[in-house]
Every structure is written in C-alpha cells, then in structure tokens.
Design a protein that fits this description.
The structure is a homodimer of 328-residue chains.
Chain A (H helix, E strand, L loop, with lengths): L6 H4 L6 H14 L5 H10 L7 H13 L4 H24 L4 E2 L2 E2 L1 H5 L1 H19 L5 H23 L8 H26 L4 H28 L2 H4 L5 H4 L5 H9 L2 H13 L6 H9 L2 H19 L7 H15 L3
Antiparallel strand pairs in A: 1-2
Helix pairs in contact in A: 2-5, 4-5, 4-9, 4-17, 5-7, 5-9, 8-9, 9-10, 10-16, 13-14, 13-16, 16-17
Chain lengths: 328, 328
C-alpha cells in the first residue's frame, strides 16, 4: 500500500498524503477478485498507478473548498481507475510497449487481455462510484467518460489528417484528456458541498491544466528521452496523429518540408525523429506549443483566485506550474 | 425507430411491443452526439440491435411481477447497450467479420475504432443508468459488468487449455453470458418493486436461460450454417476455446481422436470443421451438450412457478423453450 508517487510531486501532495493512502486502499479493495488469473493481472497493472495526479487534484480541490470525507476517497479512487482503464486501452491502440519504465499490459499479456482488463477497470470504476449515496457523482462520471470516448473517437477519425486545425486539436485534447482532470477537480469541490461558482472554477482549473498537460505530453513525445519519460515515445507522428507542434510546423515550414511532414502524417509511417525535430526547431514550433501550454497554465491558476488561501490552494498552484517543468 | 426484432420472437414479444419501442427511443436518445463521426459509427452499430433479447427479458419480468414504468424502459436500454458493447469488443477479440449478416465494426472500421466504440457504448450505458433516482440499479449493473469481464478474462486465461473441465466451462459462461440475462430479469422485477424472493427467482430464471443460451450458441458455432446464424462461425476451436461439446468429446473420444482434438485446442489452429464434426458425432457430444442446455431450460422454467399466470409469464416460458429451437 506504499505510495508510488514520483518524488518531485510528493511535496505538493503533502496536505493530502494520509488521504491518498486511504484512496489506494479503496482502490485495492475494489479490485479484489475471487479469480487468481484476475488478481495477477490487477497486480501487474498496479504499477501504472504512478503520479496519482487525478486523485491528488480531486483531494486538493476538496480540501481547498471544504473538508475531506468518504466521498472524496471513493471518487478519487474512481477517477484513477477510469484513468488507468484509458491508459490500458490507449497502449493497445497505440501499440505502445513501455509505460512507467515497465512493459505495458498488451506487451506482456497480449491485446486481448489488455482490452478485457481495460473493460474490467472501467466496470469497477462505475461499480465503486455507485456505492455512494447519490446518483449525482455517477452521472458526472458517466458524462465525463462519454466525452473522453468521444475525444478518442474524434482523434482516431482525424488520424492521418494533415489538415487538422489548432482548434480541432484543442477540441480533441479537451475531451480525451482535460475532461477527466476537469471532472476530478469539480468532483472534489462537489464532495465538499461547495457552491456552484466554486464547482465551475474548479472545473475550469482542471480543464486548463489538462489541456496544458496534454500539450506538454505531446511535446515530450517528440523531444523527450525514453529513459526519463518512462514510456514509448515518438508514436504520434508514426500513428499519423497531428499535435500542436506538428500543426504549427505544417503552417510555418518552407513548402518542401511542410509537404514532406504532411506526407508523414497521411501515411503514418515516420521512422526515427531526427528529421521531424529539425523541422520543428526551424519553425520554432516546440516553443510555440510550450507557450500555449504556459498560457493555459496561467488560465488554470487564475481560476484559483476564488478559493481561500492555504496549503491546498498553494499545491494546486504549484501543480499547474509543475506541468511546465515535468519531463515524465 | 422500427423494431428489427427477428420474426419468430415477435409473437413472444407481444405483451411488451409498445414498451420495446419506447426502449429503442431511450436507446437512440442516449447515443446522440454532437460529433458527426460518432453519429456515423452509432448508426452503423444500430444494426446489431437484433433480437433485443435482454430488454425483452427485463420488460417481461417487469410485467410478470408488476406494472411497467420509466425505470424499466431506462434499464432495458441500459442492458442492451451493455450487451452491444460486449459484442463490439468480442468481435475484435475473436477477429470476427460477420454479425447479423453484416460486417462487424472491426471489419468495417478497424480494431481501434471498434475498441473505442465499445468503450463509448459502455460509458453511455452507465451514464444512462445513473439518470435514475436510485443508486441501486447502477450498483447492480456495475456488479454485473464486473462479473461479465471476469468471465471474459477467465475464458481468455483458459484459451488453448485442453484440460478445461465442464464445471470450469459453466463458471465461465455463467459469468460472461448468463450474468447479464440474470441481472436483466432481476432488474425487471426490481423496477416493479417485487419482493426479494421474486427477485431471486427472476435472477435464477435468467441465469439458467443464459447458460442454456450460451451452450446452444457454442453448439451452433460448430454445427450452424453461416447463412442462417448470420455471424462468423467455427471460431471457438480456431481460437482454442474449449466448449461443452469439445470438453465432452475429449473425455469420450478414442485416444487418437482425443489427442488430435487436444492438439487443435492447444495450438488454436483448426482450419475447417469437417473432422471436428465427425469426432463430435461419434461421441454423441452434440446431443450431450443439447441435453444439458435442455436441463437448464427446465431449471429456468421451474423458477417461473412463483409468478402469477398471464401473458408475460407465458412469454418467459416460451422464450426459454425458444432457446432450444433457435438457429440464429
């Protein structure tokens, strides 16, 4: 039950450390099974529970707006379970073989097991959520996963699309990534019985932070070092996914480079990232993407002005700042 | 919104025809999306909504135990959505290319889209379920999908296992198939505010009927005609899945045939079903499996004795009988 939280985050998690341990316990309890083969798989996937970012956001939002209670612990375990389900399925769809410096479920046990394990995790997330005394949280979680799935379907629909616009990209990542961080923050305030304007502010914080997080994630996919990031990299261009740096580069590169990059995205066959990095450096597209991420971080922090000052609010501020510093 | 229910069932659905139309409306409303690419996929998958067996069971159980209301309509749409999600994912995992005489989602749009669309359907099932005024049904649905996923994981764990016992096989199909029919019937009675013994009887009916249904399904996989059944056949042995006829055959065939069949299951490479059928005929294994299915149908019908006589109960009796007659 020891926390596997990455070290640069542990200070920020200070105000909620004891509660995170309770969340891990709720999480483990929910995933217990009478079947040995299921227990083995769940043990294997537990290593994915790395940063616990969404539970931490939910708990910090809850503490910044009221007092933590049983609902926070349950909902924090729920959002982490939803997140893990999306990771397991994403790794199948992206043919990724490394995550948190370990083999992915699909790499270890095959695609069939990984699809089924993702289904098992999402089922338990809803099952756990419906143990609460109100349907409201279940409805919020259901609405959030609807939008996450839509974001994934939309991204898949635009696979190989070299005409993807920046606003379409933001629409995709708002749904597939930022929706869950937004809902996590909002549910933290909801479980503290905070008023509607605070719920909206926390949702806004989580949405902007989630967008910034995904932009940085997409930048790391291009410029990150696999040893530091701990997962398979350079997949986006290989899979024909346009991201903010490549969208910017397509619009600003000399005609020939743009045309070759467009060909890479359409064919989904980019081997090695040396050439891509050169193009992106020449057009300043990495700086542009990081600048946009920084802007969203600023938007996120602005939403916190509504909250009373304190350790939890400080941690939320630092967590947003941390998005720009992360290398993993 | 016209019902696509297969003709031999339409008479049995007589008592609930108007309600099934409402269920289809609830189903369609829930799956509406602002994204065109999502709408197209949902339109494509609507053709899977064939027999509407689980909604019909839920409505008939509801009518046999009380009066149909809004909760029945919502829950009937929920169980059908859960069922469709499992079909979409199963077809990916089984590499199946035909269902209801049409191409499967994976055959039409690829595995990535099919995995995501299955996730989208299950998400909407939970979202819809949590629109009800009580958490109880959501908790039942979550518990059911937990067990369905466990059944699938257990089946996958035993893939290529030529030592699978009959009781392990029954355990697998009880979870992966019969759990959802059992929960459908139980929820029908629950939404009618029926007492606990009636809920247990309806759950028992659905469990036995579901087990019989899956045994017959597995027999049809071997002896069915693709044109009649409307989906890819002869997949189980190819995929190394032992089913009741092959388990019986392994135990009763002459040593050489049994050893070759065991090899087929271990390797998961059985091309053509001519030889398999001969082995099964010689050991009477198809008759044995159908006899077991018939026994479970009898168990199902016995559970109905608790209910008042009437059209709904008659339909439930005939639906159980129909399992033995079905060719699709």
């Amino acid at each position: 039950m020891s926390s596997q939280v990455a070290s640069p985050l542990t200070d920020l998690y200070g105000p909620i450390r004891a509660d995170l341990a309770i969340v891990e316990h709720v999480f483990d309890e929910e995933l217990s099974s009478d079947l040995a083969c299921v227990r083995d798989l769940v043990d294997g996937v537990r290593a994915y529970r790395g940063k616990m970012l969404r539970p931490a956001l939910l708990l910090l939002a809850g503490q910044a707006t009221g007092e933590l209670n049983h609902r926070h612990h349950v909902l924090a375990a729920v959002v982490e379970m939803v997140h893990m389900a999306t990771l397991v399925h994403d790794d199948v769809l992206d043919h990724a073989d490394r995550r948190r410096s370990r083999p992915t479920v699909n790499a270890m046990s095959g695609n069939v097991t990984a699809v089924l394990l993702g289904d098992y995790l999402i089922s338990h997330a809803y099952h756990l959520c419906s143990s609460l005394d109100s349907q409201e949280a279940s409805r919020y979680i259901g609405a959030a996963t609807n939008r996450v799935c839509e974001g994934e379907l939309l991204q898949n629909h635009h696979c190989g699309d070299d005409q993807l616009t920046e606003s379409q990209y933001i629409e995709i990542i708002s749904r597939k990534t930022a929706e869950l961080t937004a809902t996590s923050c909002m549910l933290g305030a909801w479980a503290s019985d905070a008023p509607a304007d605070v719920l909206a502010a926390m949702r806004g914080y989580g949405l902007s932070a989630g967008i910034a997080f995904q932009i940085v994630d997409d930048v790391l996919d291009i410029v990150g070092q696999e040893g530091e990031v701990g997962k398979s990299l350079h997949l986006d261009a290989d899979l024909g996914k346009a991201t903010l740096p490549t969208i910017h580069c397509l619009a600003h590169a000399p005609r020939e480079a743009a045309s070759r990059l467009a060909g890479v995205l359409r064919s989904g066959l980019f081997k090695g990232n040396g050439e891509l990095r050169t193009w992106l450096e020449e057009t300043g597209s990495i700086e542009y993407a990081l600048g946009e991420a920084r802007r969203h971080v600023g938007d996120a922090i602005k939403q916190l002005e509504l909250l009373p000052a304190g350790d939890a609010r400080s941690s939320l501020t630092c967590l947003a700042e941390f998005i720009m510093a992360r290398r993993f």
